[in-house]
Amino acid sequence: MDNDRVDQITDNHKCECGHSGIVEGLSDRVDRIIDKHNCKASSLIQVLLEIQSENHWLPKEALDQVAERLQVPLTRIQQIATFYKAFSLVPKGRHGIHVCMGTACHVRGAQRVLDTVENLTGIKPGETDLDLKFSLETVNCLGCCALGPVVEIGGKTHGKMAPAKMADVLKNYE
Amino acid sequence: MSDIVLQIDGIEVTANEEMTVLEAAQKAGISIPTLCHHEKLEPYGACRLCLVELESRGRSRLVVSCLYPVEKGLVVKTRSEKVDRIRKMILELLLSHAPDAFDLQDLAREYGADKYRFAKEPSFCVHCGLCVRYCAEVKKKEAIGFVNRGTKREISFIPEIASRECWNCKECFPLCPTEALQAAYVLAKAIAFPATAE
Ligand code: SF4
Ligand code: FES
Ligand code: FES
Questions:
Q1: Which of A18, A108, B26, B32 is 20 to 30 A from B88, comparing alpha carbons?
Q2: Ligand 2 centroid distance, CA of A147 (Å)
Q3: Measuring CA to CA, which residue among A104, A97, A115 is closest to residue A160?
Q4: Is the backbone peptide bond immediately before B159 cis, with ω within 30 degrees of 0?
């Protein structure tokens, strides 16, 4: 992930002068994404995906803005945003941790890996920490069972994980 | 527009080519049970209660009549052992979600469906989509839509629109076969826009 963006998000997050900073920045970014897709209603899912990947979640203001500019009813946007797991309507951390609990990983000790991640991050599956650093999810098989236990962090796959290695891996994420 | 002749329950029925089997039957006064069908709305095919048996070239198959367009020489049976058995099952499944829905009670009696056959799972909404579609297609307000998927799928009001529009409309209320809609409205109103309306 590029560092400018991380800074931008962290700055926004730290900002305590009221939330106008966040809303301002967000609406500009949403506008840019919509313009890139020529404001076409048929690009709805693409637009939502890009907002999701830049912002890590879809705030209500962003959805309103998309509805307004693409001329798509909010009900439709809500339906799509709740249908696909790729979208989140609640804040998510900058790095998504996916711990594989599939059968192969399970028999190789995924549960202990998950316990360790929970302890290190202080969050349970489905949760996000207060600094918006990590979000934790469990998944059922990432498709590379030979590497089990597998943990995927921000799209990068970490194979042959052990509870003892987890702290070192997580240290690399800001 | 040419007329198409088909046979429904042994009766010759004339229909025009844009009609569905359900419409042709209704025109001829033959009743087929429906739940998600509404004449003002686009065909949807969610409940499958309207299924009928078709016979063509010596083979029979099941189709939902509210979606199936009429064809020349079609032989339709609106009731048969197979159709009745499946309808009974559909009713029993629907009843496990909405055990006290009036429309379903009557049909259950007719088809001998046992509302306690499956464990109760009262979500009340049976996902017929009448409310959602009526709001979008007839009223063009889109105040209500579906959210989530699978077993978690449910209806959800958009508070900003609902607080403006719903109180003076409520035309979808009587459409809901289970009253889940009214409950959802009251809940949404209480939580999301309590002071408005009235
Ligand atoms: S609330 Fe009622 S009308 Fe709306 S989808 Fe559910 S059952 Fe159908
Ligand atoms: S079970 Fe974990 S990758 Fe397949
Ligand atoms: S009336 Fe045909 S599927 Fe519901």
A1: B26
A2: 8
A3: A104
A4: no
pLDDT of residue A12: 47
Q: Give yes or no for a contact between B129 and B35, defined as CB atoms under 8 angstroms apart.
A: no
CA distance A77 to A87: 11
The reply to whether B12 and B71 lie within a common domain is yes
Q: What is the reported pLDDT for B121? A: 84
CB of B163 closer than 6 A to ligand 1?
A: no
Nearest residue to B196 via CA among B182, B185, B180? B185
Q: How far is the CA of A161 from the centre of ligand 2 (A)?
A: 12
- For residue A135, the SS3 value is strand
The answer to whether residues B92 and B139 belong to one domain is no
Q: With an 8 Å Cβ cutoff, is B136 touching chain A? A: yes
Give the range of the structural domain holding residue B101, as residue numbers without chain letter.
Answer: 80-122
Please indicate whether, in this complex, the C-beta atoms of A74 and B161 are within 8 angstroms of each other: yes
Residues B116, B135, single domain; the answer is no
CATH topology of domain A95-171: Glutaredoxin (3.40.30)
Distance CA B99, CA B102 (A): 9
Q: Minimal Cα distance from A76: which residue of B? A: B145
Residues of chain A with pLDDT under 70: 1-24
Q: Kindly state whether B144 is in contact with chain A, defined as any CB-CB distance less than 8 angstroms.
A: yes
- Whether residue A78 and residue B142 make contact (CB cut-off 8 A), yes or no, is no
| pLDDT number for residue B2 | 75
Regarding an ipTM greater than 0.85, the answer is no
Q: Are residues B39 and B71 in the same domain?
A: yes
Q: Is B195 exposed, middle or buried (0-12, 13-18, 19+ CB in 10 A)?
A: exposed
| Count: domains in chain B | 3
Same-domain check for residues B97 and B141:
no
Distance from CA of B82 to the nearest CA of A (A): 34
Residue for token digits 């963006």? Answer: A5
* Residues on chain A touching B149 (C-beta within 8 angstroms): 82-83
- Chain A residues with CB-CB distance to B158 below 8 A: 74-75, 78
B45 lines ligand 3 (CB under 6 A): yes
Residue in chain A lying closest to B147 (CA): A79
- Summarize pLDDT for A43-70 with one digit per residue, the tens: 999 999 999 999 999 999 999 999 999 9
The CATH number of whichever domain residue B159 belongs to comes to 3.30.70
